[in-house]
Amino acid sequence: MPTQSLVFLGAPASGKGTQGRRLAEFGGFSYLSTGGLLRTALREGTALGKEARPFLDRGEYVPDEVMLPMVIEWLGALKGAAILDGFPRTLAQAEALDTAYLEMGHPLPHSVFLDVPDEELRRRVTGRLECVSCHWVTSRGAFEVCSKCGGKMAPRADDEVVRFENRLNEFERLTFPLVRFYEERGRLTLIEALGSPEDIHTELRLKILL
Ligand code: AMP
């Protein structure tokens, strides 16, 4: 049972979801995708979904005041270590996360940065489908139903070109500085995430789970 949580940093389509979820299953971590949680809330029309919708529609980040209570509540029920996919995304979120872990008396999370060039991100995003139920991701044409839960596979609305470029800008402006934040604290592992999903998973296991 792992004791230190991991946060996955990376641009949209860098493989955070695929790799984070797979490593969580392999290593016995709990798993949280904040983007997945938001898209479920949107689909179900909850108060959170209504609040988040205009931001997701524009490909912008949802404000920290909305994200923080949501994640802190999730952490409150956490047993053991977690993989957080897509959180933190801003310096305020990273600082709040460290504070929450200190208060819980758990080791501070380690970060994994999946580094992928922009051109490859753009290539990947045109071909991906996500399960509307469990958020499993595949490339277009691979499966019509989700191989994990049998749900419907569909393109993500925010993968549309203009929204995707906004998300990429948000990443560079607000999230990329977190690489430095974790590096300065000696809590960063960089992965050049350009190979096959299988090779990247193997590298993660070697570098992270030793
Ligand atoms: P993802 O599935 O991780 O690509 O997230 C999809 C979208 O959800 C992002 O483009 C943001 O609009 C929103 N989102 C997810 N996580 C966060 C976060 N930690 N802070 C702000 N917005 C978020």
Task: Give structural notes.
By secondary structure, the chain is an alpha/beta fold. The protein has one domain: Rossmann fold. It has nine helices and eight strands. It has helices at 16-27, 34-44, 47-58, 64-76, 91-104, 118-125, 161-175, 177-184, 197-208; strands at residues 6-10, 30-33, 82-85, 110-115, 128-131, 137-139, 153-154, 188-192. The strands form two sheets. It has a five-stranded parallel β-sheet, sandwiched between helices. Helix 1 (16-27) packs across helix 9 and helix 4 packs parallel to helix 5 (91-104). The protein is globular, with a radius of gyration of 16 Å. The model has no long low-confidence stretch (mean pLDDT 94). It binds adenosine monophosphate. Adenosine monophosphate binds at residues 12, 34-35, 38, 55-56, 60-62, 67, 86-89, 93, 158, 167.
Helix percent reads 40-55%
CATH architecture: 3-Layer(aba) Sandwich
Rg from Cα:
16 Å
Secondary structure class reads: alpha/beta
Could you spell the SSE succession in H and E letters?
A: EHEHHHEHEHEEEHHEH
